[in-house]
DNA sequence: CGACGTGTTGAGTGTGATCAACATCTGTGG
DNA sequence: CCACAGATGTTGATCACACTCAACACGTCG
């Protein structure tokens, strides 16, 4: 049984559900940093739950412009968009070395059939994915560079904090400024300048892979971060 | 039974499913143009399928900046994000007079329990919502103003075309340039200038509520529109 | 060692924002 | 009937935020 499942962020399973998910689970997949887990325009017979590491969903334009749609952290479900269309509409890449729980897509019908509560969880997970993209779109569409950078930093801190992946006021980021830029719809250079300005103003620092939050309150205020605590969430 | 359901875009129901949905359905709701159907920060005990008219999902910042997240057209399911959190994370407003099919949220468990195929449809609808926001985020994050405007125009045309809501190469838009601007993360003025430039170049025109596509191919090319035909989709 | 990925900074440019004015068209009340 | 306010669309002038280009520092890895 996954270690993740025991964390207090996640809802507990009933016995039958646990048995089912163990049957549903096909195995584990480990993937190196930089590998592409799912490719836009292709079909994948698998679904995944990310167990360890960071990944991200993205889309690219023909000329190479890239937009990161959302970051995928432990407990997140990956690949739901697939069952639906013939092809994936986005790609997923591992930002760090990543461990995934693999489910065969054809067993999904069994889940719907036998486990209504899990069906609901699946809907929940799907809408949560959309919620995160919604927030990101609000940032990219309507916030200034400083607001966007602050928002994303706080967003990632909060998500990691809920998973016990923070150390006090700091956070280990397995991503580069390029990822930040591509998630925020900013250029790399301007992202860097904005980060440096936030650092000079004493809001945060980002050295190597460590991001330290010097003034979380100020960052929340600047970015208009919405503190909507979420209750225990499902994990599959 | 809804007239919508008989359209060829939508998948057909089995008898039992149809009976169920008729029980699931609580009634219909008609709402005037400009009314807010769901309010961010509040809880709604209802789910909806939009039957007629246009609506849109949006989020606002405290100072009034608004980002439209996606447009809601007939057949789209509304309100799924609610069951999940205590509160809606976005608002929904009617762009035209709108007719909605209303479902009480508490009957949802019965759907999960008795109708695995409908559970799957629900997941499908949820992921479709995310897919649309993904595409929008790619636009807003990485495309130029002319590309964005073209993309949204083509996107709306395609969706309406599938629903039989177009007249040849033109389309009745119950929205204003302000909606366009807020969906695209552009200022109203710049949206207008971009539209006028597209018109001068003979790509499209938008007079009153009628948008005419003079060169659909050129618009697709300019915007990088991805022609992924989707198969029959579910409707609930 | 050189190549490459990443981060940093400055200079100059440009896309899109803001401000402002005006044209229509609507509905409303006098 | 007209006067008026309000919503919407249009255009020009100016501004600024963010982009591009360029150069360099630093690390790691072959």
Number of strands of chain A: 12
The helix-strand sequence of chain A is HEEEEEEEEHHHEEHHEEH
Beta-sheet strand percentage of chain A? Answer: 15-25%
| Structural class by helix and strand composition of chain A | alpha+beta
Largest interface: A-B, 52 and 52 residues
Spans of chain A of at least 5 consecutive residues whose pLDDT stays below 50 are none
Strands of the biggest beta sheet of chain A: in what spatial order? 1-8-3-6
Helix content bin of chain A = 25-40%
- Largest sheet report of chain A: 4 strands, antiparallel
Which word captures the global form of chain A? Answer: globular
Distance between the termini of chain A: 11 Å
Oligomer: homodimer
Overall pLDDT of chain A, averaged? Answer: 93
How many helical elements of chain A? 7
